[in-house]
Amino acid sequence: METYSFMPLFNPAPPVFNKPDVVTEVRGPQRWDTPFSTSMSKGDVQRLLELEPFCSMDPARFPANCALADLLLNDARIVKHRQGDLIVREGDYGNSAFLILSGRVRIALESLPGNLLGRTDRQSKSLIKAAARLWNRSSHPEQRRNVGLASPATGLRDEGGALRVFLQDVPGVLQSHRTLTLQEGELFGELAALSRTPRTATVFADGDCELLEIRWQGLRDICRRAPEFKAHVDRLYRQNSLLAHLRETDILHGLTDAGLQAVAEATEFETYGDFEWQKDFRKQSALTSSELFQNEPLIVAEGAPFDGLVLIRSGFARVSHAWGEGRQTISYLGKGGVYGAGELLKADSTSHVAWRFSLSAVGYVDVLKIPRALCQQLIVPSWDESFARSIPNLDSLLSAAHRGKIDTGLLEFLMDGRFINGSQAMVIDLNRCTRCDDCVRACAATHDGNPRFVRQGMSHSGMLFAEACMHCADPVCLIGCPTGAIAREPTGGQVLINDSTCIGCSTCANSCPYSAIRMVEIRDEQGALILDEAKGKAVLKATKCDLCVDQPSGPACQQACSHDALLRMDLRDGAALRWFKERR
Amino acid sequence: MQAIRFTQRRLRSLSAVMAAAALIVLAAILLQQSLVDFRFPSGYSLAGMIVFLAAFNFRKKLPGLPLGSSSAWLQMHIYIALLSIFMLGVHISWRWPNGAFETALFAVYAGTCASGVMGFYLTRTLPRKLNATKEQPFFESIPSLLAGLKQEARDLVVAAAAVRGGETLANFYDDDGAKFLELPRGLGYYVYPTAEYRRQLLRKLADLSRYLSPEGREYQSRLAAFIQRKDDLDFHYATQGMLKMWLFVHIPLTYTLLLLTGAHGVLVHVYRGS
Predict the structure, then answer these.
(1) CA atoms of A223 and A104, how far apart (whole Å)
(2) Contacts of A428 (CB under 8 A, 6+ apart)
(3) N or C: which end of chain A has fewer CB within 10 A?
(4) What are phi and psi of B39, to 5 degrees?
């Protein structure tokens, strides 16, 4: 067969016609154009300012354009709950904290069953059931046999336009689970809101109560301006999870308990980037790589004095250096990543060492900083020789990047497209894919005739990153689900939607930066659309890849690919990606 | 994570096939020394292999069941097919078949093997060529993309005709461009797609530059891009079609082979005594 050449003879760019210089002046978007709630009044704010902890805060610390009263007016709202209302669920990704204004709430000290939280307890299908499903396929797309809340343990009601899921049997829950009561004036949910980590416990209303919900932006600003409030949050973090995080950090493995405690005491918490990066992500797709980089807040700057280790607590950070007229990405770090070990090796107590590369926040990053002096005093002496040897040499890393040994183009593609978020991304080797669509057919066959992904998406280096749920490390789709229908599996980590508790609000689909969640109109067994009797519109459900979590075979798409072209992989694992790309 | 390179896998599998072939030869020698007619055990083994090879198609129709990955099945399919050629040689004592039924059975087996080899070659070479194009369309969407392109090209030429010197482009379109952009390719292209036609056409179009105004050249560039895109879409249609069509030869031959193998087994047992 003749070699197929695709060299264009002409520039295929469309003609450019000169346009007159017309300038339109508009008022730029302002921070509080969209307040958290429109129902907050100045009277409400006045009442809040008289309560703890706000009455103890020094108003002078807040600048005029970010006054405490304005923060409360625009970044907070008063919400009312009734007996049994679920306020936060364990495992949810929340972006707000709660202050109890009146009444009381209960924190479940042990995990509540999935059916109480709007989730289903998934079980893998038996072989017979899996086989029977192939012959019992629905005759209509998106057909549902049962619609409505599947669990009789919970109910759904409307509270002034906001949906509330409530526990039907609060006494039963209290009898069978240990709980802790929180009273008026107490704050909860602030750690999950500030550190973008899953809620660690379920909280529900114990009788009528009134709460002040503060969204993360307001909470962050209060932390910045009110040292006593920040100290309170930091203390909680130190008490609850910092030691566990430090213990899991490889670089600190040689420290004794006392050493870890000393590190925990000295560690500083910092947050960079936009907590809700996904909101602007699609708009940013038009920006060039260097423009994207300019928008990324610097955590450490290349050339600045080395001041200690940086540990990534959540989110992603880009390691880059100045190269030519732009910046070259060398590597990236995710949760648990450590930056600065190379510099630390070079440093002694007196010498000046500069950061070799810049570290910048991609989206949102939460970091821990361990001061240099403590690193030199405690951490470096705890390393054995083999561990010190395993730390990458910065010079050879730089040289490898310059000599093309690191595919920096692919790295930048993964960073700019935020594919590094994917823990189970669907990657297709286009040099092996025969376009047979066996993967799509297998997906449809295992999901009642409805494929849960599209074999298209962005591609780089001959690899297609298909529009299938990547089961992200930072699952922004989980934020704001009113019923908890979308959640992460506690064991496998898959992000799953409970079809029976999904109310079709599209919050998750709008949040997903990768277009991996699709809203579908559901049908009954006769193929007719199921309508919401109150709205008169078709009932919508959010659908996406569930990684065939209930199939005995695992992901059907991967199993169905005869040509080794499709693989579900963790894109944070550079070695796996390199193997996939180079396996010849 | 399967951390094995394809070359390593190929070497392992080929070694396994050679070891199995050596075992078959050893078994044949031992059985013949024991005065056992080796044609029966080799025939049963061969029939078993053919059934297993045909079962791959059923495996593909049963997704979600823990039957092993399709990739593992394909690897076994390839190497057992290879072994089956050797087994057939041993079974018929490396002679040409005779008699109408035996010849037909052999011809169908050979056809199935040949179509499989062709399919293997196509599936391993064409994806790389498909990937070389800028656009990666779905096979089913290509006809509608071509229809849209045809309309866009027409609109472009009409707009080009209105600018100074633009009638040159209209003439080009009328004489050569329309045939390429509006009609499907000839049958030969679907068997052996080449870029020669596109190259000729782009050369002709490039030669028109000297007659065009700067604005006309902008239209010329856009028309060239349309020609390029049409060629890419045709290439995808022909190539993706080929990747699907070879199975329409291989699978019917497989079923025919299964039927003839069954019939061969019955006949052999019926006439065994004679």
Answers:
(1) 25
(2) A455, A463, A464, A466, A565, A566
(3) C
(4) -65, -30
DSSP string computed for A461-528? TTEEEEES----SS-GGGTT-SS--EEE-TTT--EEE-TTT-----HHHHH-TT---EEEE-B-TTSP
Instruction: Return the sign of the alpha-carbon dihedral for residues A286, A288, A289, A293.
Output: negative
pLDDT tens per residue, range B215-266: 999 999 999 999 999 999 999 999 999 999 999 999 999 999 999 999 999 9
Which residues of chain A fall short of a pLDDT of 50? Answer: 1-20
Q: Tokens for A310?
A: 């940086």
Asked if B224 lies within 8 A of A431 by C-beta distance, the reply is: no
Angle at B166 between CA B164 and CA B170, to 5 degrees: 155
In A, minimum Cα distance to B6 occurs at: A584
Is the CB of A435 less than 8 angstroms away from the CB of B139?
yes
Q: Which residues contact B23 (CB under 8 A, 6 or more apart)?
A: none
Model confidence over B125-134: pLDDT tens digits? 999 999 999 9
How far apart (Å, rounded) are the C-alpha atoms in residues A53 and A66?
Answer: 18
Burial string for B191-203 (b: 16+ CB within 10 Å, else e) reads eebbbebbeebbe
B140-160 confidence digits (pLDDT tens):
999 999 999 999 999 999 999
Token pair for A195: 């550190």
Whether A563 and A419 have beta carbons less than 8 Å apart is answered as no
Q: Which residues contact A119 (CB under 8 A, 6 or more apart)?
A: A484, A485, A487, A496, A498, A501
Question: String of b and e for B95-111 (b: at least 16 CB within 10 Å)?
Answer: eebeeeeeeebbebbeb
Give the pair of three-digit tokens for residue A188: 């909860």
Measured in degrees and rounded to the nearest 5, phi and psi for residue A228 equal -70, -30
Where do the DSSP E strands lie in A90-151? 96-102, 105-108
Token pair in block for residue A357: 């590369």
**CB spacing of B136 vs A430 below 8 angstroms:** yes
Q: Which two tokens stand for residue A438?
A: 């066996």
pLDDT reported for residue A16: 38
| Nearest residue of chain A to residue B7 (CA atoms) | A584
pLDDT value for A220: 83
Residue of A nearest to B57 (CA): A562
Cβ count within 10 A of residue B126: 19
Residue A384, burial from CB neighbour count under 10 angstroms (0-12, 13-18, 19+): exposed
For the record, the structure tokens of A151 come out as 């669990």
Burial (CB < 10 A; 0-12, 13-18, 19+), residue A484, is buried
C-beta atoms of B221 and A13 within 8 A = yes
Query: What's the CA gap between A312 and A269, in Å, rounded?
Result: 10
Q: Contact A581/A567 with Cβ under 8 angstroms?
A: no
Task: Produce one character per residue of A397-415: b if its CB has 16 or more CB atoms within 10 Å, e if not.
Answer: bbeebeeeebbbebbbbbb
Q: Which backbone phi and psi does A137 adopt, to 5 degrees?
A: -70, 145
For residue A204, the Cα-to-chain-centroid distance in whole angstroms is 24
C-alpha distances out from residue A486 to A190, A191, A280, A382, A476, Å = 21, 21, 22, 43, 11
Amino acid at A142: E
User: How far is it, in rounded angstroms, from Cα A269 to Cα B167?
Assistant: 70
Q: Does B140 reach chain A within 8 Å, measured CB to CB?
A: no
Task: Identify whether A482 is preceded by a cis peptide bond (ω within 30 of 0).
Answer: no
Average pLDDT over residues B29-35: 89
- Evaluate whether B51 touches B44 at the Cβ level (below 8 Å): no
Rounded to whole angstroms, the Cα distance separating A375 from A568 reads: 38
- R_g of chain B, CA atoms, integer Å: 27
B138–A558 CB contact, under 8 Å? no
